[in-house]
């Protein structure tokens, strides 16, 4: 039986921005996940299929070899830890910034002085903990799964650590960014074992993606 290749992707911006890269490698999905409830999407290539999973689940599928490769944001990869994964390429897609944000008018400089305690709401506890530890600021991290922007508005936290791209969400909720933590983009991730056992299938895709990113 010919070897099968499974690619894990999330719906939305990552899927949209990955389509041209797949096309460059001659891979065309049979349908778009936005128009379908299918979780396994075949492609024009009989041995290559896509699986559609939550963005934060992509590294897990690839780590355990349920998918051979995938595309995940650096935010998701830092929180996952990267175990069992090779990260051969920064694809420079789905770009954004990890920022600290507060309600407009909140005195962040004062509140984040050493010696005080800051309440931080975030979906990214590892990134947030590391950032504030490096500054020597004591924090209580409140883990949320979405809509972090609400937390400072209702007194759940003093600030949030979240991704910002246009800044429209912050603006619409009377928040402002006060600190830049990191620039974020999405990376190609490959299962470490598959990199060896499926080299002949995987390598042309990695090389094509690398060329597409450079051009
Ligand atoms: O949406 P869902 O809860 O299913 O999962 P997800 O948010 O993890 O997935 P998705 O598809 O929204 O994001 C996938 C990846 O895209 C993330 O892991 C990031 O690496 C990257 N990315 C790029 C972003 C953004 N830009 C972004 N703006 N991920 C999320 N956002 C959110 C942000 O959290 C905030 O709520 O968009 C809002 C801010 O956007 P602006 O344009 O208003 O600033
Ligand atoms: Mg989202």
From TrEMBL:
Pathway: Amino-acid biosynthesis; L-histidine biosynthesis; L-histidine from 5-phospho-alpha-D-ribose 1-diphosphate: step 1/9. One of its GO terms (biological process) is L-histidine biosynthetic process. One of its GO terms (cellular component) is cytoplasm. Residues 54-209 form the ATP phosphoribosyltransferase catalytic domain. Keywords: Amino-acid biosynthesis, ATP-binding, Cytoplasm, Glycosyltransferase, Histidine biosynthesis, Nucleotide-binding, Transferase. It catalyses: 1-(5-phospho-beta-D-ribosyl)-ATP + diphosphate = 5-phospho-alpha-D-ribose 1-diphosphate + ATP. Transmembrane segments: none annotated. One of its GO terms (molecular function) is ATP phosphoribosyltransferase activity. Lacks the C-terminal regulatory region which is replaced by HisZ. This is ATP phosphoribosyltransferase.
């Amino acid at each position: 039986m010919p070897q099968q290749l499974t690619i894990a992707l999330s719906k939305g911006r990552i899927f949209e921005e990955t389509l041209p890269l797949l096309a460059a490698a001659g891979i065309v999905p049979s349908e778009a996940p936005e128009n379908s409830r299918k979780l396994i999407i075949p492609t024009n290539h009989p041995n290559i299929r896509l699986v559609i999973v939550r963005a934060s689940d992509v590294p897990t599928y690839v780590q355990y070899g349920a998918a051979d490769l995938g595309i995940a944001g650096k935010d998701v990869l830092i929180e996952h830890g990267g175990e069992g994964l090779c990260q051969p390429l920064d694809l420079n897609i789905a770009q954004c910034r990890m920022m600290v944000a507060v309600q407009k008018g909140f005195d962040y400089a004062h509140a984040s002085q050493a010696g005080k305690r800051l309440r931080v709401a975030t979906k990214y506890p590892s990134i947030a903990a590391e950032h504030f530890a490096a500054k020597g600021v004591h924090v209580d991290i409140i883990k949320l799964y979405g809509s972090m922007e609400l937390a400072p508005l209702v007194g759940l936290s003093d600030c949030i650590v979240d991704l910002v791209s246009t800044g429209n969400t912050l603006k619409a909720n009377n928040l402002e960014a006060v600190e830049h933590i990191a620039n974020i983009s999405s990376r190609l991730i490959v299962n470490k074992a598959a990199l060896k056992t499926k080299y002949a299938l995987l390598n042309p895709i990695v090389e094509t993606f690398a060329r597409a990113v450079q051009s």
